[in-house]
Every structure is written in structure tokens, then in C-alpha cells.
Amino acid sequence: MDVLSDVITALRTGTPRSAHVTWHGQWRQHYAEVPGAIGFHVILDGTCQLQSPETVDLSTGDILFLPRSPAHTLAVSSEVTPPKPTVPATPAPLVSAAPGHIRATTPGSGPITTSTLCGAYELTPTQTHPLLPTLPPVIHLPATTQSPELTAARTLLAHELTTPTQGTTALIPALLDTLLLYLLRATLTAATTPGWSAALRDPATAAALQAIHQNPAHPWTVAKLAAEARLSRAPFARRFTTLVGQPPLTYLTWWRMTTAARLLRTSADPLTSIAARVGYTSEFAFATAFKRAFGTPPGRYRRG
């Protein structure tokens, strides 16, 4: 299985956002938790510090990767700590590079102390790929450890945000996908990442996952998936749930809805066709399942 491609497929069901932000003088910014989101900060120029949920000094070129977008605080230096008057106001957009993507600045005076590139995919929490909760909440990637591909991706995204022109609207989401994929590549290693990714290293669970992903429309049951894994039903169900974090049929429904969401956004196929491609013989049953997963009917999701 190509797990990273599947993660990006799941992310594309969410709302992509990115911003190039310049910070002036002494600043400190708190970011609220965004359930279901995956995000990052790139330090394009200058230095700053992550002050919570842990302390990390950040320099030019460093990336702060947030697989679960926890509440966190950035500041220009360790000297800016509570209870200094107030956190500066949320950056105000100056230039809209593309829908959901902006160039922004912070209020205040003085020279530019830090320039950052931040981005995120905001997803319905139930549609978050099960790999992401298994990763650490905060991952620091120093500039000196980054691959040339990751460096190129962040440079291209920063360029499109700061100098939008013809084609920027199409390029930014693709570059955001690319940057996040390289971040995941840098983070996901067989030696260091436990949890869901371990399912891909387990032949039995990997066989069941492969079957689900290759043919989500098949009328799978736990017994049929256990047969793919060459295990009896009960041991398979326990093993799958432990490694993946979800029971087999729960995961099957999640992948069907993720696939349906991608088809709704990328094709003009009628709902009956999409329903059939993800295993539903009734458009009504499909619409009910989709609304339960995304909180909105499939037709409205497509229009949005």
C-alpha cells in the first residue's frame, strides 16, 4: 500500500489553508487547537520560539510539523512570556493569493523580526486519516536535516503566496499537498513510528487493508477480510483493531466515505454512480452514511 498517497487523499476532503506572515517587533501569538486538522509552520527568515506545549527554538529554514494541530504558542523570543499585556491580534490579510490562502502581517511597529509560512488542512475530525493520531503532536525538522525536495516544496509555496499571479489558485493546493507529503515522508519511518503504520508491516493486517483499498465496493464482512488475512475471524478482528485503531468494518466505512468525498470533488459522476463505486446499492443509504460522516449531504458537499 502507498500509505502517504492515501493520507493525502484523505486530506483533500478537507479545506486547505496557507499564509505567508511577517511579524514586527516583539510578538507572541497563540493558536487554538483545531480538531481534525494537520498543519505546519516554516520559518522563512529570522528566529522565534515555540513556547507551548513544549519549548523549541526555531531558526531560518526550520519547520514545525503539527500532525494534530494542537493548541500552541509562538513568540519572537523567550523574553516574550505571559502575562505581557495581550497577545497581538490575529494577522489581518493584505493580499488574497487564492481562496483560503493569504499574505498577512501583524500589527505593530519596528523592523520585521520573523517571516513565517504556515498551512493546514482542516478536516472533519471523523475523516482524519488514522495514521495521524499515532504521530507525535509536535515535530521539529531543523533546516539542516531536510531533504532537497522538502526545501524546494516550501520555497515554491512561499513564492506563490508572496507573488500571486496567473495559475496561483491552481498551484497552491498542489504545492500544499506536496509539502505535506514530504513532511510525512521525513516523519514516517519504520524504525521510529509506531501505531497505525505498524499495520502496514504486519502481513495479515496489510492484506486486509490492501483488499479494502483496492475494492471498497465489495460487500466485505469481517469473515471475508479475515480470509484475505489468512486468519480466523476473532483473532483477525482483534489484530486489525489493535494495529489500525478501528474495527475492520468501521475502517471500511471510513475509506468508502473518503473515496466518495474525493469523487464528489473531482468528478461529475452522478450520485448513483459514486454510491455504487463505494459499495452502496441505494443512493438514499449512501447519502445517509455520507451525511453521518461529513455532517452534510453529498450534493451540498459537492457544491461547496
Describe this structure in words.
The protein is α+β, with helices and mostly antiparallel strands. 41% of the residues lie in helices and 21% in strands. It is built from 11 helices and 11 strands. The protein has helices spanning 3-11, 148-162, 168-187, 196-201, 203-214, 222-229, 233-244, 248-266, 271-277, 283-294, 298-303; strands spanning 15-24, 28-31, 38-46, 48-52, 56-58, 63-66, 72-75, 92-98, 101-105, 112-122, 139-141. It has a 7-stranded mixed beta sheet, with helices on one face. A 4-stranded antiparallel beta sheet has the order 2-7-4-5, with no helix packed on it. Strand 4 (48-52) and strand 5 form a beta hairpin. Helix 1 packs across helix 3 (168-187) and helix 2 (148-162) packs antiparallel against helix 3 (168-187). It is globular and about 65 Å long. The protein starts with a helix and ends with a helix.
Task: Summarize the biggest pleated sheet.
Answer: 7 strands, mixed
Instruction: Give the neighbour order of strands across the main sheet.
Output: 8-9-1-10-3-6-11
The secondary-structure class comes to alpha+beta
Helix content: 40-55%
The best one-word shape is: globular
Enumerate the spans where pLDDT stays under 50 for 5 or more consecutive residues.
80-95
How large a portion of the residues is in β-strands, by DSSP E? 15-25%
Strand tally, please?
A: 11
Radius of gyration: 21 Å
Mean pLDDT: 85
For the termini, the CA-CA separation is: 31 Å
N-to-C series of helices and strands: HEEEEEEEEEEEHHHHHHHHHH
- Tally the helices: 11
